[in-house]
Write a structure and sequence with these properties.
single chain, 2-enoyl-CoA Hydratase, Chain A, domain 1, alpha/beta, two-stranded antiparallel ribbon, nine-stranded mixed sheet
């Protein structure tokens, strides 16, 4: 049979294959199209960005750990209103949850006001739900110490949206207390956050076996990982009541004859509106920040003082972390097509969950 070379490549002729016939092979199949190329590129880009960001952040943290406070330029005063430079009214902010860091910052501000002999009046602007017992008392003590060192310099308190619990504790050191019409204040009392997971641990067969020294019966009192005895509950209650007695004593001394209500009516943990606080004598006047400043000027006999505000300029690390947080927020929100996820983290709530879960007495309002 004569081979038909017009046959399609790779086709075999019928019958026996002729001598010397080599069929043309099929061409190799085309490789399957690559899928997910765009997604793979996006993932790789994200990984590179994260890696570079991690390296950069670690370098910054290394510099910060070596340089210490080199990123802080110290307390800065901003001129709010120009006037007689030999007469100053200093505005000292007290804002945020009161802890050791805020107490230290406030101490620096008061040091600056105390050292500046041109400062003839001070307005403390409070916007705080309170915080730890010790830090609140430190701030209260620092204000009183300033009044001793700079006798005759009026200290006026101007409350913002909140001056509750530890915030009000600090306000009691002021000579005259203003609250805005919408301010919440009061919340005189103590709480000690505690959580007990003993039943949950029992469910999964986990048992706490913490060893305490012989005779130190209450060393592990308040542990979240085992049932609490009535004796331990009574002991923890006594600690809270001791801090509560301290709070009431501060209110009695700070407000003295100005207090119009019985202590039992104001020291019940309630938050009060400005009109209610005024009627009970917890504050002296309802007004805004400028009203507090004008009162301080009048009390000090100032006609045209220079008004300055103290603040800590943010460090390089804080600016970097802030910018990174904004970037993360933008990425989480989707920023475009199909992005409908928005993640918002309350930093104060996060701090309370992480820092204040250890049993400790707090002058803190949790209703915000």
């Amino acid at each position: 049979m004569t081979p038909n070379y017009n046959m399609m490549p790779g086709m075999m002729p019928p019958g026996p294959m002729p001598h010397g016939y080599m069929p043309m092979p099929y061409p190799p199949p085309a490789p399957p199209p690559r899928r997910g190329g765009a997604g793979r590129a996006i993932i790789m880009t994200m990984l590179i960005v994260v890696l570079l960001g991690s390296i950069g952040l670690n370098l910054v943290l290394l510099v910060a750990s070596v340089g210490g406070a080199a990123g802080h330029a110290g307390v800065t005063q901003q001129t709010v209103q120009a006037g007689n430079g030999r007469e100053k009214l200093a505005i000292v902010p007290l804002k945020g949850i009161i802890d050791g860091n805020l107490s230290a910052q406030f101490d620096r501000f008061m040091d600056m006001a105390e050292a500046d002999k041109a400062v003839k009046a001070v307005v403390i602007e409070i916007d705080s739900p309170g915080g730890t017992v010790t830090a609140s008392d430190e701030i209260y003590h620092r204000i009183n110490n300033f009044k001793t060192q700079r006798a005759g310099v009026p200290v006026v308190v101007s409350m913002g949206s909140l001056a509750t619990s530890g915030g009000y504790y600090a306000a009691c050191a002021g000579d005259h207390v203003f609250a805005q019409p919408t301010t919440f204040t009061g919340n005189i009392g103590v709480l000690m956050p505690r959580y007990n997971f003993s039943k949950l641990m029992e469910k999964y067969g986990v048992e706490e076996t913490t060893i305490v020294s012989t005779g130190a019966t209450f060393k592990n009192a308040g542990s979240s990982f085992r049932p609490e005895s009535p004796e331990e509950t009574k002991y923890m209650q006594e600690l809270a009541d001791s801090a509560f007695a301290q709070f009431k004593d501060v209110v009695s001394k700070g407000r003295s004859s100005k207090l119009k209500a019985n202590m039992e009516d104001v020291a019940n943990g309630k938050v009060f509106t400005s009109p209610a606080a005024l009627s009970m004598g917890l504050i002296d006047q309802i007004g805004y920040a400028e009203d507090a400043q004008n009162h301080a000027k009048t009390a000090a006999g100032l006609s045209n003082p220079t008004v300055v505000r103290y603040y800590d300029p943010p460090s390089f690390l804080q600016v970097l972390l802030s910018s990174k947080s904004e970037g993360i927020g933008a990425f989480a929100s989707g920023g475009g097509k199909g992005g409908n996820i928005n993640v918002t983290i309350d930093s104060d709530l996060l701090r309370e969950l992480t820092e204040f879960t250890t049993p400790r007495p707090l002058y803190l309002w949790r209703g915000q």
